[in-house]
Every structure is written in structure tokens, then in C-alpha cells.
Amino acid sequence: MREITWSTAVNEAIAEEMRNDKTILLMGEDVAEAGTPFKVLSGLVEEFGTDRIIDTPISEPGFVGMAVGAAMTGTRPIVDLMFGDFIFLVMDQLANQAAKQHYMSGGKLNVPMVIRTNMGATRRSAAQHSQSLHAIVAHIPGVKVLMPSTPYEVKGLLKAAIRDDNPVVIFEDKLSYQMKGMVPEEEYIIPLGQANILQAGNDITLVATSSMVQVCEEAAEVLRSKNISAEIIDVRSIVPLDEQTIVDSVKKTSRVIVVDEGHQSYGITSEIVSRISEQAFYYLDAPPTRIGAMDVPIPFSPALEDLTVPTSKRVVDKAIDLINNKF
Amino acid sequence: MAYEIIMPVLGMNQDTGIIAAWLKQPGDFVEVDEPIMEVETDKVVQEIEAAESGYLSIPKYPEGAVVPVGEVIAMLFDTKEETTVISDEPKDLTKDALNPKNEELVTQSLKHSIPETKTIDLSNTEHQVSAPPSEDVSVLSVHSAKILASPKAKKTAQDRGIKLTDLLKQENEQHPITFKDVDGFVAKGKDVNSYSTINMYFEDAPLSDMLSSLAQEVNIEAWRFITKIILSSLYVCDVFSGNTFAKIYTVSGELVLKNEHQSSLSADIITTTYNKIDIEIIDLLDSHSISTEHEFSAPIGFVLTHSNNQYKLQACFNSTIFTTVQMAKFNDETTKRFQTPLRNLLELEA
Known about the structure:
The structure holds two protein chains of two kinds. By secondary structure, chain A is an alpha/beta fold. Chain A folds into two domains: 2-183, Thiamin diphosphate (ThDP)-binding fold, Pyr/PP domains (Rossmann fold); 196-323, Rossmann fold (3-Layer(aba) Sandwich), CATH 3.40.50.920. Chain A has eleven helices and 14 strands. Chain A has helices spanning 6-20, 44-48, 60-72, 91-104, 134-138, 151-163, 212-225, 243-253, 268-279, 302-308, 312-323, and strands spanning 2-5, 24-28, 53-55, 76-80, 114-119, 144-146, 168-173, 180-183, 196-199, 204-208, 230-234, 237-239, 256-263, 289-293. In chain A, the strands form three sheets. In chain A, strands 3-2-4-5-7-6-12 form a seven-stranded mixed beta sheet, sandwiched between helices. In chain A, helix 3 (60-72) runs parallel beside helix 4 and helix 7 (212-225) crosses helix 11. The termini of chain A are far apart. The model of chain A has no long low-confidence stretch (mean pLDDT 96). Chain B is α+β, with helices and mostly antiparallel strands. In chain B, strands 10-11-14-15-16 form a five-stranded antiparallel beta sheet, covered by helices on one side. A four-stranded antiparallel beta sheet of chain B has the order 1-8-6-3. Chain B has a four-stranded antiparallel beta sheet with strand order 5-4-2-7, with no helix packed on it. Chain B is globular and about 50 Å long. Mean pLDDT of chain B is 52; it is low at 87-144 and 187-350. Classes of the chains: A alpha/beta, B alpha+beta. The interface between A and B is small, with 10 and 11 residues.
């Protein structure tokens, strides 16, 4: 084990997979010499050349369409979508084409494509570069959606995504690129659809995605000082969703808060809470609760922006209310 | 127990409803949630489901009648026999029930029906056995209102045969009832300053004898508040509090409390012969398949406590009525036996 950054973990995952499988390509805006604005992909073009690390024109629908076609004809493209907000531009290629090819061709075609993109606010990037839009993709059957929380997680999940024969979109929190974490030197993958119980607890379950895992870890620390034992579940992949781990945990603790950085309404939190209500109803001792981002465009003003996203304080306050029957 | 079927409010501005059709005949047994009649308003015709199970009485209004909302239309009774009596003015029965004359009648019928039962007047003991009637009326009126309780609390209460209405008496009504409230229910009842103690001494008595004595010693006032118990499960749990160890046996599904109102409606219910009761307790505890339909009058639970080398068996009749059997003179073997669940104990005896 050694400590590396998120960026290095992503870089390693892609490089390792590309060395093993010659059909893997990487394309996107500024992915070659520039190594993306976040410098995540630096060094890859030197090793694999411009035939496999391809700088594309500034046209997201165009290069995602290229990738879908390339995937259907025998390659395994990784597409770098510079900001998650641009997912709207590629929705036809992703939702109407990539997600449905396997089904509509009667299983004759696969689209083994990975879209690497990002999410997350509080980077002062304003309303069009700060959104967390994973719920929009997760709504479409035929696409897998991953939300890694640490360098270890992103490496293992990205490698699994590259090997998967379905279109996979992996959302990375753009504030996490410099996050450091312990990552084994030897190869590993994290199978898709397995949630991770980060910390066992008895009083309340905190279900979290992406960077909300860290928010919940902070909250659990505060709750521990108040003698409240919280169980933290890192969802890891929202499609497929490891329902069983979440439901089993809630059956044990009887209380749950689901935390996700997408807008609260019609989001991932609603979906997870709904499944809990259906499957653990008679085990609930308090309403299953969710905390998402406010239903507003993300403000540019730092003071306002920080108010819109879930914080550990909000999680702590909510948890204490639920435990004290204030609902 | 009898339940009123009233004309429901189906619309915002509805004053009356028309009984479009009766889906059940007088004397029919109606299950909970079974459609009982169709009610027509100016907007809809809707099937109305029974909130409780029971035998349908002769309806007060025929099909086509226009009935003000909230008006009693018919009754649901526990026995088919009761349905043959037309409840012409169900609301007046409440007045009758509170009429002292009527109360006297009930008491008379009670005494008449159970001549052999030994009656102990507990009015002289330091605690009141039965809750004052006024309190019980309030409990029953709460019954019809929506009780806020978590799904887990409701499920646990149902499994253990605890009525949420009984919990409301003790719990802060500000908050919804949670699992903790239900779980602590039996133990809490012990602390309520309204149980009476009957001291009974046994020297290595078999449990069956003890329960049978217990059933006879119980004050008739206590029995009067219990008309029906449907047994659904036997619960055994350990409770530790300081240096006191308690094993709690709860044998109960549904406890139906009765106040003066109900007793006048169905005085027959309390004519159960109490000598039989203890036998039924034993039978039920002994059998592996506990029927949910089995009806009898008995304590809803027993609390066996051990403190300072003294064992106490308390019979719990509802949250506020406890009867204690002191078992000070047990030898070691009995002590050991009492630490095993009741059911095992009975099997050993058999």
C-alpha cells in the first residue's frame, strides 16, 4: 500500500488497462498533451501515442457518437467528458443509442464504452459547471452509473467499468482529484453493484454516494461523541444498486439518512429511500430521510454555494432529530 | 365488544350520504377491511370497508336511505346472537351505560354468573386495581383517532399483543410512539403507581397450581375490565435493571378493554366461568401452535422478577393492573426451574 492522489489512481487504472488490452482507446477534449484541465491524464499520450489517446474537437455529441460507433465495432473507448454538466449534450448518443443497442440488436451489438466525467459543487464554478447530474443518467435503463468516493474506490471501479461490456458512466467529484488515499500496488478491481459498509453502527444508517461519504464520516465522528453509533454505507454504484446491503443495514438500525449531492427532488436519495420504505417498512422506527443539494441552480457566490450542498452539520442535526423522535 | 358503523365523510362538503347497497346481510360475519356497504354521495359511489371484524347487526337504515354523516348505521358484534337484537338507538346506550341503575344490573349479573369465584375486595389495599372509569373512557375515545406510531413500533406492538391505545396512556402524546416505547411497555407498567399486590405463598407448587390459584385470587374488579384476549404469541425476554433480574413472559395477542359503555352493550361477555380460565392458560402455554383465534380471559402476561433471593411472579392484566405472587419459599430446584422459559417448564412437568 502507498498513498497516492485520486488523479494518479485514475491515471494508473487507465494505463494498466490499456497495457493489457490493445482495443482500449481514450478520447476527449484536451486529453492528450494537456492531460485534461485537471491534469489527471498526464503522461498517457507519451506511453500510448496519439492513435490511442485522441484529442477531439470541442463537440461532445460528435465524439461520444464516435465512441459509441467505435465500441460497437470492436474497440473499448474511454470518453473523457470534461464537465458532468455537458452530459446534456450527449444524452441522445448515450441514452438513445449506447444504452439501447444491445437490446435493440437482439444482443448482437455491445457498447463497451466508459464515460469519465465529474460532478460536485463548491469549486466556485457557477451554475453550469457545478452540477451533479448522475440521477439523470441513472434513470436510463442500459447504462451503469458509478460514484467512487476515494482514490482506492475510483481505481477499482474504473478498472471494472473498462472491463464491463455495457456503457458505464463514472462520476468523479471534481474536488477529489487531489484527495490522497491508500491504494495497493498490486492489481485489484471492485465488482460493480457491491456497496461498502465503511463503518458498522447500531443507531442509524448513513447511506452516502461519492464525496458525501466523507461528509457522513465527519458526521459519524460528531455523533460518536454524542454516543450515537452510525453505520456508514458507501453506495459505490447507483446502477446497479446494492439494495440488499442498504436494506439489511436499515433493518438493523431502524433509522436512515440518505445523502447525495444531486438536487434533492427526483434524485438518487428519493430512489434509495423509496426502496427502503418498500423493503424495510416494518423495521423503520423513524421516517427514512434524505439530504440532497437544494433545488436551486448552484450559485457562484461562495457563501451561497456552500449553503446549497449537504454538510456534516446537517447530517448530524437530522440524525439527532430522528433519534430523539423529532419528526 | 361492539363497534359502530357510521356514515363516513367522503367529500369536502358532504353532509349526508345515501346507502346505495348493503353488501352484507344481518348476522353475516365481516372481516376487517371487507366491503360492508356502498355509500353514494353527489360525486361517487364508494365501497365502505369494515374497520373491525364482527357479526353485522340489523341495519338501522335500509338501502336508499339518506343518512347524515357520522350517524350510526349498524353495529358489529362479537357473537351472532347479539345481532338479532336491534340496536335502535346506539348512541343512547352510552347514556344507559353511565346510568347507575344499569351498572348495578351489570354487577348483579356478574355475581350471579360466577358464584364460585372467590372475590377479594381490593378497595382497601393501598393501590387501586382498576383505573377509574373516566380514564378508560378516554382511552377508548383515543382508539378511534389516528395514533402516531412508527411502523416498527406498530409491528412490535401487534406481535406482542400490546394495544397502542394502552401506550398512549403512559407516553407523551407529543411524539410518535417508537419501538422503545413498545419495548419498555411491560416493564414500565410495573412502575405505574396503580397496581395491587396479592401475596400468595407456595412451597414448591407446580406452576399450573400456582396459576390456577392466581386466577381465583384475582380481584373480580380486574376481570371486569377484560372481556376478551386473543392470544397470538408467547414472548420471553430478559430484563436487567440494577441488580434486579426479571424474565418477562407476555402471553397475549389482543386485549380488549371494556368500560361501562361496552358492558351494558354486551353484558354476556363477562359471564365466562373463571374456573376454566386457568386451565386454558396452561393449555395455551403448553401447546406449540398458539392459535390466534383462541379467545379467553386471562392475564396478558407474567413478570417473574428475582431480587434479594426472592422470586416474584406478577400477572399483568393491562398496563396498570398487576397482581403479584410472592414466591419467597421456593427451594433451589424450583428456583432453577423458574429461570427456564415457561413453556419448557410445562413440558418438564408433563
